[in-house]
Amino acid sequence: MVKRVYETFTPDEVTDDMLRMAATLFNENYGTWGPQSHKPGKPVTLSIGRLREQYLPDTAESSYIRVTVDGNLAGNAFICRKAYREQGLATSLLRSLREERDDIYGIMSSHPGACLAAGKSFGTTIETVPLDFIRTEADAVMKSSPIVYVRDAKLCGTIFDPNDSTGLVSGVNTSFFVSHDEPLEALEVVRGAYKWPLGELSDGCEYLLVLQVKRRRPKLSAQ
Q1: If 0-12 CB within 10 Å is exposed, 13-18 middle and 19+ buried, where does residue 29 land?
Q2: How far apart (Å, rounded) are the C-alpha atoms in residues 187 and 146?
Q3: DSSP structure class, residue 152
Q4: Engineered SS bond to 173: which of 41, 119, 154, 179, CB 3.0-4.6 Å?
């Protein structure tokens, strides 16, 4: 029997060894730099220091969620080993992030699978994502982010600029020129199963979802 364990940690509980494992997971699975980058074809890597500084900042309340499969680290937040993909791990990880006091969640990602997981985790489907809500709320939500990479990203796509001719509907320009070979292959598969609402993926860009989540009503006790 496969044993899956989901764990949530506060920043002060996250050790350097845990971050080292997380960095290894990212470095071995994320992908390579694209042709317009400064390191074409080279693996995209993330250091332990940047993980702690950028993803567990002191300026915000944050947490680290991971899933192990038979004792092996299989995913944390949005990054899952290829061998463990399409098993619902990303969806379960994202659901672990939810708290009753939060009513808006967002994701920036070049991978359609991450967007599918986010939609499912936060109470909608990829075919019914609220594009009008994204258009009106994305700017304020992103500007309030403690993550510099998110805060500095530029909104792009036809819901923000009707004159956008790239084919992108909802996204951000991060100038993060990673290879889109795998995401585009995944997008072809996704389009075979769903009506994809976010458009084409441009170089240096990522898809953007901003989702409003209905808070659960407290259960009434029987009188």
Answers
A1: middle
A2: 30
A3: T
A4: 154
Q: Which two tokens stand for residue 123?
A: 């109470």
Write down all domains in the chain, each with its CATH number in brackets. Answer: 1-97 (3.40.630), 101-215 (no CATH)
State both tokens at 134: 């994204």
Mapping DSSP to helix (H, G, I), strand (E, B) and coil, where does residue 184 land? helix
Q: By C-alpha distance, which of 10, 211, 19 is closest to 123?
A: 211
178 DSSP assignment: B
Paired tokens of 82 = 């290829």
Alpha helices in 11-111 (DSSP H): 16-29, 48-55, 89-97
DSSP-derived letter for residue 37 is S
Give whole-number Cα distances, 176 to 40, 150, 203, in Å.
12, 12, 8
* Digit-coded pLDDT (tens) for 74-85: 777 633 333 444
Instruction: Report the Cα 20 to chain-centroid distance in Å.
Output: 20
**pLDDT tens-place string over residues 146-198:** 788 888 999 999 999 999 999 999 999 998 787 788 888 889 999 999 999 99
Whole-angstrom distance, CA of residue 223 vs CA of residue 221:
6
- Apex 93 CA angle, 55 and 119, nearest 5: 100
Sign of the C-alpha dihedral, residues 167, 171, 174, 180? negative
